User: Fold these one by one.
Assistant:
Number 1:
Amino acid sequence: MSVGNTLKHLPLEAMHEEAGARFGAFAGWHMPLTYPAGVMKEHLHTREKAGLFDISHMQLFAVEGAQAATFLSRACPLDTAGLGEAKSKYTVLLNEEAGIIDDLIVTRLGDERFMVVANAGNAVKDEAHLNAIADGFEVTVRPLKRVFLALQGPEAEGVLIGAGLDLSDLTFMTAAEPRQNWFATRSGYTGEDGFEIALPPEEAPAFAEKILADERAQWIGLAARDSLRLEAGLCLHGQDINETTDPASAALLWAIPKRLREEGGFIGAEALRRIVSEGAEEKRVGLKPEGRQPVRSGAPLMNQNRETVGRVTSGGFGPSAGHPVAMGYVAKALAEAGTPLIAEVRGNSVPVHVHPLPFTPHRYHKG
Amino acid sequence: MSKTYFTEDHEWIRVEGGTATVGITDYAQEQLGDLVFVELPETGKALAKGETAVVVESVKAASDVYAPADGEVAEVNEALASDPSLVNTAPMGDGWLWKMKLSDESQLDGLMDEDAYKKSVA
């Protein structure tokens, strides 16, 4: 792991240092991985109370203009016409082969205004890709400088009210602009109820301090963010999905309305239609290892005849599940829950079986 | 009378009568974070100096623990199978990893004592 001067730094880095964070490099950023409580307690705290995550490494783009909606429906397999104001949707950027360039949350803020949230490691690539498509449209794609905080867990709504921000009217995957240059959605990456809030960097320290003044809230690092999202069955781009995986294999077709898949119009539509009609060769599934030994990204998966039939793309220990958890890709015929497989870890055979996702039930506030 | 050595790889080795007990240091367990699994060797296994003897796994990653000298595994800490967090709570006590019969104790010459080790991680 190189920790050079090339890493980008979070605007709130001093607060994380003060809180005793241990840092590491992730997607080109110097990020807090854990705090003194440790990943296990941080993870459980988030599921029980409220965890505060600094996700300012992620990039927000304001997409604005008379053709913003048609532009986004070209760039993503997204029905912007059917996306009401203040509604958020999970979607993807596809290449012509229907490979996933990035996964995104797109929110409609007005007739001609959208907010796009992209992954840190893909932000530069996404911006270039979007700008290339934008050439033929009356639209601008503007990266925003924001501090981006996620507050996740059953107490998140109450903690925010205490911090002077009442977002109790929002339901899962809806959004608001509570103050000038602020943006908030009721969504997240943990499987819990919670919010993601973008705000101007100069207003962020005071806001974060108000949240942390509530004993129900504490900083949570990237390590627990990863174990939380893995238990929730959510993909990490660059690991579980990438430019060589398509939405059908990745089990993300739920995010692309059937009508849109048939009518096309978005980049990658033809390739996706072909993949769907021929049937994807492999499928992303949850994997539960037997025993306590974790299986991790890169471990090959074999059938009972010791033929390689897939691979693990994310794996670790699930503190709430109480056992190791993983996800990966397997041949379509072996994607059924309960199918026994073998993961090879350092020459040892670890029995695993295909397990439904998520490992811990989602607890979204659907209203 | 036992003697305790420390390595640059953050292991401790306590030697008594030709047998070494090996574990990781408090500094190491802190760096690794909460351990969830410890892969221990078979008793009787021959280990060569520098070879991976044990793998400790935290929530996020797996890390190797090396044999500090040649020898044969005499005993492993079975308690870690059900409670790997002992390595976090008592790295130099109940969280020991394995014991080995040393082939040549002089291979440990030149390792750090506790004071030198503490200075190296300060």
Number 2:
Amino acid sequence: MVSISSLIAILAYAIALCGITPLFPWLEIVPRSAVVIGLAAGIWQDRTRAWPVKNWMFNAAVVPVFLFYAAQFSRAQPIQPVVSILAIMLAVRLAGPKSGRYYLQSAALSLFCLASSSLFNLSPVFLLYLTVMLVLVAVLMVLLTFYSQDSGMSLPPGDYRKVLAAGLLMPVVSLPLLVLFFPLLPRTPLPLWNFMVVPTTRSAGFGDSVEPGRSQSIGESRVLAFRAEMPRQSQSQLYWRGAVFSKPKGTSWERSAAPAEEVMYPRRLVTQTIYPEPGSSRALLALDAPGRISLTRSKRSPDGTYEWLGPAGRRLTYSAGSVVTGILPTRGGIDRDFYLKLPEKLSPRIRELAGTIRSQAPSDAGRLEKLELFFRNGGFSYSRQGLPTGEHALELFLFESRQGHCEFFASSFALLLRSAGVPSRVVGGYLGGEYNDLGGYYLVIEDMAHAWVEAYIEGKGWVRIDPSSFAANAGTVWGGAHAQSPMLRLRLMLDSLDHSWNRMVITYDSDRQVEAALNAGRRFQGIKVSGFLSAAIPYLLLLFLVAGISAMFVFRSRIFISREERLLRRFYRQIEREYDLPVQRGKQGLFEIVAASGNPGVRAFVDIYAGAVYRDRKLTDDEYEQLLLIMRQKFRETPS
Amino acid sequence: MTKTHNHTAITDILGVLSRDHLQGKEEVLRLSLIALLTGGHILIEDLPGLGKTTIALALAAATGLSFGRVQCTSDLLPSDITGLSVFNREEGRFIFVPGPVFSNIVLLDEINRAMPRTQSAMLEAMEERRVTVEGVTHHLPDPFIVFATQNPSDQSGTFPLPESQLDRFLICTGIGYPPEHLEKMIIAGGGIREKIVNIAAISTTGDILSARRIVGHDVFLSEKVVSYIHAIVAATRCHSMIQTGLSTRAAISLAQAARASAFLEGRDFVAPEDVKRIAQAVCAHRLVMRSEHENVDRGGVLRAIVATIPLPLV
């Protein structure tokens, strides 16, 4: 038999672990080490059963720490001091001597720690931690009630099973209610869960400028960029447009305000719902090229990109409609001068190459073709290592090393086009995506960040050209369809879980609630039934109603217990409480109970009660009142 | 229920007898009174010397009823019980001399010693409450109760009562040894047979008859209790150890006895506990066990059956 006190100690540590683990990665070094030391000290002292430091000493020691963190609190940094003090207080409670009160405190602090971890990250794992913690806390509470009676108590295994069942029952009962109430309860326009979430900055991938030649190599990043819910598309069409860079500066390209132009989008667009991961970038991504993005506080720029104007770092959801042909026709012309601007310093070798192309073909289309030929036959290869750097990076790439990543290809291609007199711009975004069949969405990671070029061809419009595809090894780098390994499939499965969590829980706001309600309404109205059936529906409903009512009538004694039964149950409970007599329900007659208790109050009750029941009549209201009065007076106190 | 004069008269018999004269015999006295109040008869199965006769005598004295005793032997003739016509020389005609059966309380000692023919005549009288001698029917007095006794351990030269005749006894019970302190008191005080004769009558025949009417008509038997009785009877009919379960007559007897028991408790309705309390005394002797379970204690089997049936409480 395990004694209650050791079980409570184990539970308390488990609860503390459950609360602190999700918060741990976000803690600063001091509270982090305090938690580790506190936990270790607590367990060690529990084993040796010696508590050299008293709780009042700990409490006194916490006061300056509290003041220190209170001073650090500011509007700019509201969360870190709070979680730090929470973690330190938990550590202190774990390290100090324990009694029922301190166990309760440590459980409460653990719960706060778990709750505050949701300010940093709210993933489905949080729900798991919360469920486990609720079960453990419930069990702890039950055990603590025993513990407060007698700290040395130990229970037989059967009783532990009962305690565990009671602990499990509470979450098991509340979870279905949670599932029911979550979609129904009124929502705020902004997802509440997101309210305090600290913006996380994403690294690598898609940035705010295209700068080839920054470093010798770029690493791989498997971090999720966004998800796009849509039917499967042809893999070669998966260009996700993010930003347009139209201002060359040295070897790099930057963003700038685009001159007005009118793009003609076709009527039919490919629709998709995008779920970007929160990050510092404000570009709203969509399949190239988006004709519409429905999100309040977003702005379209004339170069066909969209921007989010709200606060950064928020988890967003929007739907977009895209034209996927790769050509954007314009009404009227474009500002050719703007798209022909060249950097001040342009390498003479590039100028020379552009001059050759310009002289070889008179039209923009012809020049584009010539340049394509140059890239195709030039023996370029795509690489992430051994990249040229510095001021002359593009020149080195074009004429010496001939290897680089998409930014090299796109920047140099656009630069050559402009030098040759063809209006062009660099487009940044993502290429490709892993289709998740389970969730029906494309998974795009930061590693898929890409840059390509758009050239303006008179009569056609903006034409998408991906210079990276001219690389000799392009086929192996973006090697079409590859078999999905079991690991990848598992990852996709987990990802779809994460996605549905974000979709259903994190970004669930009033808009989505209204949308869900409207959808449900439409679906209900959309049910087409034949004439006979629709005429029969009211009768069927009536039939169901009648059947339900008669079933209730037939089983009324099971559904509604009678007044007598209620009284009797209460009588039994009171007898058991007052006399400590276990009543054998159904086996012990009422008069036998009278004899066993030998009490006039019990006799008075039974005389009235049995007098009605065994005369085959219901209790009258007077009798009922009288019985209640007898019970309220307590049998023991009834004068004989 | 308001305690009527009748009720007090009857319960006084129980109180006075068990307090002053027959210590430790309260249960048997109760059962005897129940038999008296329902018009049934009682069979007491126990060893000699435990006070069977004393109880019958005491009851007769306390109720003021007449008492007759028959000691059964194998040569006892029916006419020894019923009485016979003798020629009266002075009047020059036969006159009927009533036998001991023409008393209110008849003690049939060691009934299993009488030969079947005599047993049968006696049991017929018990059932019919009249005796026909030489073509003339004589009604037995009312109230009429037979105290039959038999010695279960003494088997040689006896004629055990067949099941059909056992069924005629409302109640069959034992007496048992008195508790230690009471037995010591009885040893010290000596037998009380002589004192019993001096017990003053507590009630009258009228009291008993009117109490009997109340038991028969005024004590309420609810549907719930009827169902409970039926459940007990039905359960005995499908029990694995029992060959023949309880008859409908047994069920009627159970209901009547339960009414009388409720009356003695001072209630005007039957509670399931009344049934439970007298079930063994009323029913056990009527069970016919399968041959392989012939020696099983019937009372125990019946108690077990009753325990499985839930009491109606709502």
